[in-house]
Amino acid sequence: MEQIFISYRREDAAGEAWLLERELNEQLGGASVFLDTSGVEPGAVWPERLHQALDNASAVLVVIGPNWMTASDEWARRRIDLQDDWVRREIEESLNAGKHVVPILTHEATMPPSDALPQSISELSSRQAMKLRDAADVALIVKHLIYLLQGSTPGRSGGLYPRPAPELPDPLSEEKIGIALRGVLSQWSVQRRRSEITSTRGEGSERELIGLYREYRFHTFEGAVSFMHSTVAGCDIMNHHPTWENIWRTVRIFLSTWDIDHRISDRDVQLAKFFERSYETFPAAERSS
Known about the structure:
Blueprint: E1 4-7, H1 10-28, E2 33-34, H2 36-39, H3 46-56, E3 59-64, H4 86-96, E4 100-106, E5 130-132, H5 135-149, H6 174-180, E6 189-198, E7 204-217, H7 221-238, E8 243-247, E9 250-255, H8 266-280
Parallel strand pairs: 1-2, 1-3, 3-4, 4-5
Antiparallel strand pairs: 6-7, 7-9, 8-9
């Protein structure tokens, strides 16, 4: 039975939709994802099969490429404006049924504003989107959906820190940290801190925290705060969260893995790379020439 339904336009983002189907089925054991080209058997009643798959799905991925909004029929009418457009109907049914709807943006596409969408699906613009640019983004999308289907949400717990992952990572050796801090992470450094740590029982103790540290600068205070806001979803999806602060036009980030006694793991390296990619394309970033 399908757990994930992929909605897309074939002329807009077919390759990305097929990639998501393959990766999700590999992770979830096969036959968990509905994609129209592979999920409708010969001789099946097509509309009924789509409705059945939507009813079964817990999550619906809406893959949006550059031509998703502007795709038109032979009379130059936007398909999204037509009541019999299947993409529109898939989204309508999903929103009305309270499904977990996730827009997936490809090829630098942006979320359409609500007033550019038909009223029946205008709510789509308020859903947090994820970007699909490379293999790392595919991994984040797959991880998010696996958490969803397992009935858990990354980063939710009653204590100071989120619930530990099922498998704890190993601390990285000094040699591996040195290798990681070359190339794209050359602006990051290792920093040691003393901090008062409070346990879930309310007991406090002072510990040494070892983490990766970086400062990002922006043209304005608003830009610095916007950068923090724009990266929150990625941190949640990776189930790894920074210690950070904003001072005027600067954002300071400290990454340490709390559930291995506040040492550096590959989680910190991957989250640092995520911040680097985000900063590289962020409009308000004050990058050195």
